[in-house]
Amino acid sequence: MSHRNLFVALFVLAILGCSYSFLVAQTPPNRLPETILQEGSKDTPAIRPIGNTASVPTPGISAAPSRRVPAVFDRFRSPDSSSESTWMSVKAARLGMDWLFRMQQPNGLFITGYNPALNQPTDGDQLTRQAIAACALAHAARSTGENRYTARAAQAILTLLSETTLNDAGIRTPNTSANMPSKLAFTGMLLRAICLLPEPAEDMIAKAEELAQYLKSLLQADGSFKEEPGDNLTTAGMAVYGLVASQKLKPADWKLQALRSTGTYYRTVFRSNPSPAQIGWMGPAYAEAFQLARETPFAEFVFEMNDWLCALQFTQTESKYLIYRGGFRWGFDVKHLEPIPTLDSAQAVLSLSEAYKCMGMLQKPDAARLDKYKQALMRGCGFLERLQYSEDRTSHFVPTLRAYLIGAFFNNPTDGNIRIDQTSMACMALTQFLASGAER
């Protein structure tokens, strides 16, 4: 062999060796499926040390529970307790919750996303996405009754609260940051995360009230929120979503009046230019407002949004559309919707779940509407479940990479990338579907 050929061969071997070490150098996070744990991997620094699995609530976050509150998942302890399709939703939600649990770092924040093709975390971290993930873990704690989720949610909340400042007027304002494109959205989701904690302590409730005061300071006379660059109907929806959770935890006349005035304003906006992006957060927000206040205008707005939303679902059974079936066309403008459904469809499932629950609370429920929402939900949940990395769907990856994928939801049928906020939304959507009664 010539010196040149020998050099080329050695160079190729070196590249292959580097590539292999790049693929297997990462350690799986804790609480992995047994099938992965049995395969083994090198013990190098991980997202979080394997032994750091504390389930004791962080001091000052949650009060000592006087009794165990019944949780959504109490009804789903085994496959025998539900239908096969419902059990698929249960497994998907629980697997996603565990993925969120594993993706939290020691500083309280989460790995923002993952690119399986490069076996690397993605860039583009945003504090609002972190707040959505904290909200999802608090939601998981309340839905399962498991303290380990409470502890991780509390840790994330404390870290995110460090990005705010309390002024002399008692208003907790988000700090200006390049990682915070919308203070309105961040405040709404952080407020909701605190309110969803199981039995939050008084000092944490006080911080939630300070955040609510910030939202109050942005309310305008016409019912809209004062917007900054980066704000839109989606960020306004997040603010309303936080406000309604605050009203449920600590009721106040001004909060209910704010929900009424914003509902009137944004209903007018929806009628003039409906868009899925507005429904994503406002649908479940005003559904919760109806569940609290039992005021007809809230329910009417919810049904108006969700009736329109149902028409955006892919229902075709032809082979070329089969992978899209159950997903929803999404976008900020009905004239410019995405050509294929993405994980944003989780917001549609969340909204429809709450709308179904609202319809069931009426004195005379509309049977046709209930069935329409239920069928849309069943298809929507099926679409979300097909976008989840399961053990079967990751068998071709090395064990260490599988550890970062199993339980996460990827963006769409042609994009395998993961984002923390999208998986968070999918978990909350599937859980609320199970809580709505539509699975029966």
From TrEMBL:
Organism taxonomic ancestry: Bacteria, Pseudomonadati, Planctomycetota, Planctomycetia, Gemmatales
Superkingdom field: Bacteria
Chain positions covered by the region annotation Disordered: 42-61
InterPro entries: Terpenoid_cyclase/PrenylTrfase (IPR008930)
Name this polypeptide is given: Uncharacterized protein
